[in-house]
Every structure is written in structure tokens, then in C-alpha cells.
Here is the input.
Amino acid sequence: MTIPYTDISQVYYDGAWHDPQAGTEPVINPATEEVIAAAPVASAQQVDAAIAAAREAFDHGPWPRMSMDERADMVEKMARALRAKHAQIAQLIVAEVGCAAGITHLMQVDNPLRLLEAAIGHARREQPERLPIDITPNPFAPDGPRSIGGTTVVREPLGVVSAITGYNFPFLLNLAKIGPALLAGCTMVLKPSPFTPFSALLFGQVAEEIGLPAGVLNIVTGGIEEGQLLCTDERVDMVTFTGSEGVGAQIMAQAAPTLKKVHLELGGKSALIVREDADVQSAAAMAATVISINAGQGCAIPTRFLVHESLRPAFAATAAAVAGQIAIGNPADPAIGMGPLIRESQRSKVEHFIELGRSAGARLVCGGGRPAGLDKGFFTEVTVFDDVTNDMAIAQEEIFGPVGCIIGFSTDEEAIRIANDSRYGLNGAIQTADAAKGYEMALQIRTGSVSLNGGTGTMSDAPIGGYKRSGIGREYGPGWLREYQHEKSIFYPIGK
Ligand code: NAD
Here is the structure.
């Protein structure tokens, strides 16, 4: 059976489909190692043409000149069209990413669409801001009559945006760029991960279906070189990127000579703090389950388990027992809890870190190898280490696999110190019977979000992003569009 959207054989720019000038690249199902399709690859000339189309659409096309409501109507059409394709998109993601079907529908498709729908609501409520009246002395006649005036702050689209995304939640990551940028009135060239090209190309079909003006959304495929062109071209005003810390730094450097705005959503090494008063069973069960989501390939997953010394043995035993119950196998099977890693290179990286953990003296309490009976696919076991110290590589580096580290602590202050002893600052979690104390601790953790006692919050209205090397800027929430807007202050006198 053909996987939905894998029959797309062209790249999309300037409102039309074009044969790929750089040929094709096989896309592999990470669970079976079978080629699911040959994906089109754009040439440098095609990236150039896509940027030109986005520039033309921004400088002379209708999109940035339409009212916010008119754009919101179009993006709402897009959201409805995507909702209608929910099942096909989920099927594609299971095959491209290897994410378990049971969680793909909700986490990879439905939640992103809810976020988009929330952004449309915020866009419709956008108003120019009128500042209070201001009285200022005349600098040329300090004793003469003063002037009185007002200011209105209007928000305008930032310009042409390059969007470069990673592979792990491809539909979410692409939609999280397209949605706010288009609502704000920007035009865009999107380049997805070469592992997941079809999750991006499908937006070309949707753009056509809803009648998006030519050049507003352009989708090119490829790897590092194509991404570099999107960062260095002087016709691009902003780069928005979701991916690894190292590539984020390269993108900043590539964008620096032309002083583009850079928006970065990067990696994490988030801590879960389990206080002495916590329900250790449920905390450990949650910890082991969460690291198995998308085989641990999630930026915000807590992978450092900071556990009060008195609970550590019980936590380790429960986490190991729960991890052992997670069914690993072909993610298309709804009974499967965890699929494979994206590629052999990612599995080698995870196995390298497991070896580093062992040799540093950490104690393996479960996993550490490849699951039995799965000869094909890039599978790995859910792995938990105990006796970890925060200076070990497994506690400091983003492994991006289903690997958790248990680190003991004795006081709340020590737990916060260890949680903050990381170059990342994306997410955090606290489990405690004293929710007020947990809240006070959350305020001291230097991360963009903290989940208290399993709270997922109203995700669709909460801004998400990183402190420190986890990123610059925020996605989602009321300020989402602002990342893609300029503010312009218009001053005017009163009484003239
Ligand atoms: P990656 O950094 O390897 O690649 C991301 C994208 O960058 C790909 O499209 C790639 O082709 C492109 N790229 C690579 N080098 C480039 C360069 N020099 N210039 C321009 N583009 C370049 O990331 P990945 O492995 O696909 O994704 C996993 C990473 O993404 C993890 O670190 C994860 O934490 C992070 N992530 C962060 C968030 C978040 O919201 N903070 C969400 C999801 C994933």
C-alpha cells in the first residue's frame, strides 16, 4: 500500500510544482528499513527561485497587504483542509518518523492543529496599540509651550522568512512556522529535514487546494547546502529554525553577515525533580513512559530524573519494571508503545552514550541494548541508569533516545542547583505532594516551561521556548505572531 503523500515527486514554489533538478533521495521507513519513496531534491537554483518567489510575493503580492481577518480566513481554510486529511497525515508520520501510531494522532497531528486554531483566534483579536497621551517640553524653547501627542503602535509583517525544521515532529514543526508567519503576513520558504520531506511537501498540495497566492508558501527539499542558502541570502529577512543546538549556532553565524532576525527552537536536557513527599510509584512510571515517547526523540522530554535519596531505590525499581512493559516494534501496529529511532546513525549515537554511561560508572537498571527479535529497523531498548552524577556526559548531553538518568539529591536547594547545572533550559518537571512548594521551586528553574505534578496546561495558549542554549524566541501563545512582525510607532500631535 502506498503511504499517503509519498507520490509527490516535485518541489513547490511560486505557486507551481517543479521537477527536482537535484534528482531524488530515498526515504526510509525506520521500522522496516524499506524505501517508502524517492523524494524530490531541490537544486541550489531552485532554492534561489523559491526565495525570489517569496520576495516577489512579499514586495508586490496581495498577501502582506490583506487585512488580518482576510489572512485568518485563508489560514482557517488551511486548518480545515488539514483536519480533513488527519488520518493520512498520521499514516505518513508513522512511516516517515517511526512514531507509534497510538500517540501519533494526538501528539503529532491533532495537537498541532489545535495550536494553529488558537493562533488564528489570536490573529483575529490583534489590534493596533494606542499609547497614553504624552506631554513633552520643546527642546528649542524649554520655557515655551509644551507639545501634547499620542502614539499608535502598529504591527507589520516582518518580510520573507526561511523556515528550517528537524525530523522528530515534522508536521508540528512545519505548521509551527507556517501558521504564525502566514497569519502575520510574511511569505516563506520552508526546508524540512531530509528524513521527513513528505510531511512538508503535503503543505504544497494544501496551498493549492485553498488558493493561497503564488509565492506565499514555497517548499524546497534538501540538506545542509540548501539550508545554508536559506540563511545567507540577502533577500531573506528572518530565519526560523527548529533543530539541534549545534546547527542552531551555525545558523546564527550564517545569518549574521546579513543581520537577519533569527528565531531558534533547540535541544534540551530537562530535569524531573521527585521530592521526598512525592508518590514515587507514579513519578517513576511517568518518567519511564515519557522517555519512550517517539523513542525519546522529543526536545522537551525530561531525561534527568533528580530523585530524593530516600526514594531512589524504589524509583529505580519501578522505572525499570514499567520500561520493561513498553511494547517495542512496528509503530504502525496500534498495540506498540515505542517505535525505532530515525536512522542507524541516531542509534549509534544513542549506543555510544550508553557505553559512555557504563564506562563512567553509572549503573544500568534496565535496557542498554537492542530489543530481541527485531532484526530490521533502528530499534533500541528503553534504558535507565542509576548512580549518575550530573557531570557525566549522559547527564549533560542531549542523547535524543529513550535514555533516562537517575541522580540523587538530599535538599530542595540541591535539586534546583542540579536542575540548573545544564547548558540547556527548555523544560522541567516537579513531582511533590506540596504543590505550593513545587510552584516556588518552578520559579527558580531556568527553563522556558515547568510541568508541576504532571500538568500539561493549556498548551494551545502557553508560550514555549528555551532559556540558555535551548533557543531564542517563543512559539505558541498570544505572542506567537509577534516573532514574525515588526512594531512600528506612529507619533502624532494632538490639537493641531
Ligand atoms: P538538525 O539540527 O540535525 O537538523 C535540522 C534541520 O537543519 C534539517 O532540516 C537540516 O537539513 C538542517 N541543517 C543542517 N545543517 C544546516 C546548516 N548548516 N544550515 C542550515 N540548515 C541546516 O536537527 P534534527 O536532528 O533534525 O532534530 C532534532 C533536534 O531538534 C534535537 O536537538 C531536538 O531537541 C531539536 N528540537 C527542538 C524543538 C524545540 O521546540 N525546541 C522541537 C523539536 C526538535
